Each structure stands twice: as C-alpha cells, then as structure tokens.
Amino acid sequence: MRKVLLIVALFILLTPALAQAKTVYVAQIKGQITSYTYDQFDRYISEAERANANAIIIELDTPGGRGDAMQNIIQRIQTAKVPVIIYVYPSGAMAASAGTYIALGSHLIAMAPGTGIGACRPILGYSQNGSIIEAPAKITNFYVAYIKSLAEASGRNATIAEKFITEDLSLTPEEALKYHVIEVIAYDLNDLLNKADGMKTKLPVNGKYVTLSLKDAQVVYLRPTFKDQLITYITDPVVAYVLLTLGIWALILGFLSPGWHVPETAGAIMIALAIIGLGYFGYRSAGLLLIFLAIIFFIAEALTPTFGLFTVAGFISFVIGSIFLFSGGGGVDYLVSREVYSQLRLVIITIGILLAVFFAFGMAAVIRAHRRKAQTGKEEMIGLEGEVIEPLVPEGMIKIRGELWKAVSKTGEEINIGKKVRVVGMEGLKLIVVREKEKNVEEESKGGE
C-alpha cells in the first residue's frame, strides 16, 4: 500500500513539471522583404504553432522591401497562435523601412546593441540618375496612418512612429527603449530569454494578452534551407539588376555567335534568376517559372543537339524549380510532410533525369526521323545493289532484296547471270542499272590467278 501511495505522490509532483516544459523556437530572416520573406515567416510561425511553443523569436536584419509583402507578414504575425518576438540581431543589423513596420506589428520587440530601427519614408523607386523617386502625398499619408495604428494597437509611441516616416527618424536601441518603441535590449539570445521572461505581450494572442515564460526554455533553431539562402542572395537589388543585365548581354552574344549555345543558356538562367530576385514571386510561382524554363531547355536540346549543355541546364532548372514548388506556405515546412518530402526529393531527381534523357535522346531521334526525307518509290530504289538472274541484252531480270525486277543496262552492254549491278534510275517499273565494275574487276583478277 505504501508503494502505491509513493507512486501516486511522485506522479502528482512530476505532473506540473512535465506540464511546464517550455520550448522557444528561433529563426533568422535576412535581406530584402519580398513575397519569399512572407513564405519564410509563415513557415517558421507555423512550425512553432504546431509544436505549441511558448514563443517564436525572429532574428531580423533587413533594409526594407515591398509594402504588400510587409503587410501580409504583419497580418500573419497578428493571427499567430504563439507570441512572435522580433529581435533585431546581431550587432550591426537593422530593422529599417518595412522591417520597422513588421517589428511594430509584433508581440514584443527586442534589439541588440549596435543595431537600428526606423527610416520608413515610402518611395516609388529610383530614377535613371540614381535619385530617389518620392511617393505621392496620398501614399505617404496612408503609411503614416498605418504605422500609427500599429503603434497604438500595441501601446507603443505613435508620435515617434509617425516621425519614422515624416522625418526619416532612426533610433538606436537605447533611444528606442527610452521612447517606448521597443521593450528589451538584449546582448544575445540567452539575455533576451531572461529579460523577456515574465513580460506581457504588447498584442493579444488568441484574444488575450500572454505573460511570457521563457526562462530556461528549450531552444529549437529553425535553420534556413538551401532555397532560403539562395533567395537571400538574389533578392538583393544590386545582384538582381546585375543578373538581369548580364543575362541580356549573354543572350545578345549568343544570337550573334550561333552554334555555341553557352551564352544563350547562361543568359536565360540569369534572366530567370533576376526575375525571381526582383521579388514579384513566391516560392511556388518561382518554381513554376524554373520548371517552364527547364522544359524550354529540354525542347531546345531535342531541336538543336548541344552535346548535353541544354540537358544539364534543363535538369538543374527542373530540380530547383520542383524544390521551390513543394516549398513555402501551407502551414508546414513543405506542402507535404517531411517524411513524404524525403521520398519526394528522390522522385524529383529521378523524373528530372528521365526527362533529360528522353529529350536528349528519344525526342531528338523522333525529330530527326521526321526531318529525314521520305524514302519511297524511285528514291528508295536508287543506289540499291542487285544480282542478274536473266542476262541483260540489254534488257533482262534482276533480283533485289528478294524481289524480281525488269532491268535494262544503261550503257547497252550485255551483263551475264550472276553479275552484280547497281540501280541508277527508274522508268516506270523498269530499273536502269550499271555493272558494279570494282567487284567485277576483283573477280576477274582472282580468276586470272
């Protein structure tokens, strides 16, 4: 009986401890804010939601980016089922322009020493001489109202938030904390977990404000995937513009030097990457673009054999495009489970190889067969070799491919039985032939011996 009571007592004591097990997810977002960035936010937040984590910390470093993508990210943060903490990190990082809006739309903002936040004046782009094209007043006024509403909803300083736009104000971590724009200054992740522990979120989560319980929590890092790292590089405006320019030059060079095919191939790939890098696509749209480019490469290989150049380019484009296609949003890391995706990768590579082989060899052979001139009737008979079975004096009978044909000697000479002849013409159903001289001479020399 005592053993039973002891077990029950231990179970009662351990149950609260097991229930209080804490987990914090940590992810990193760097570079321009684009549609891909929204996919990353959605994927990371969904991972934390699925694990019922105590919070997810997004280490943010961005100079800004697209306004539509920024608004979608903020909506995703504010509908999250777990607290989302924006941490401007590491030292030297920034949450500028669109990054400032995202931070103000989060449940808690932290900054590392040596970072900055602010400077949100909207622009339309850059002119040919490099000067900034200012947004019209109505667009500026909209973003002023938007950033103020984000600040007011979270109890942060709306006056300073407005100055981020109207005065292009930027703040250090100390200034941002002083003016109640952020909540925490943390040197590193552990410092953030300790300082934020016990704080209440600035926005409700699932309809209520949450007291953060982060101290001694288990930290789970969500690492960027290959596609995330690739997108980070090519979405840089400078890189995207250089890729676009070099791609156009390569296409022009390829058209001026036909037969080489290397410039056109490289140019097409660079232009596709530049279009993706400009940020107008999400992962799935980018995947479809790359798969479409791969099909073009495969067809080009079939039409213009390049000893495998277009095939390799098509295979690479197809594999990367397929990975992009099955990535992104949807509430999980991929549109399918991780176990299924590990098998899907093998399927993608296998199908890519089969497509490459088919277009490089099978389709190319079919196209060559269609291009070959039809060999029927007269065209089929010219050049065939036959044997005389009835002397040609000058007309007679010969056998070709097991068939008997009437034939006439073109030169009028008599050709005896057993001699080899070659068809050089045709009149109706009568073949015009000449004697195979080389073989006849060879036979005569042997007879002389």
UniProtKB/TrEMBL annotation:
Q: Which InterPro entries match?
A: ClpP/crotonase-like_dom_sf (IPR029045), Membrane_assoc_protease (IPR052165), NA-bd_OB-fold (IPR012340), NfeD-like_C (IPR002810), NfeD1b_N (IPR056738), NfeD_membrane (IPR056739)
Location comes to: Membrane
Question: SUPFAM superfamilies annotated for this entry?
Answer: ClpP/crotonase, NfeD domain-like
Annotated Gene Ontology MF terms?
peptidase activity
Q: What is its main location?
A: membrane
Asked if the Swiss-Prot or TrEMBL record annotates the protein with the keyword Transport, the reply is no
| Organism of derivation | Thermococcus barophilus (strain DSM 11836 / MP)
Note the topology in the membrane. Multi-pass membrane protein
The processes (GO biological process) annotated in the record are: proteolysis
Q: Which keywords fit this entry according to its UniProt record?
A: Hydrolase, Membrane, Protease, Transmembrane, Transmembrane helix
The segment(s) forming the NfeD integral membrane domain are 238-362
For this record, an example GO cellular component is: membrane
Annotated ranges, domain NfeD1b N-terminal: 23-178
Looking at the record, the residues that make up the NfeD-like C-terminal domain are: 379-434
Protein's UniProt name: Membrane-bound ClpP-class protease
What parts of the sequence cross the membrane? 238-256, 268-300, 307-326, 346-367
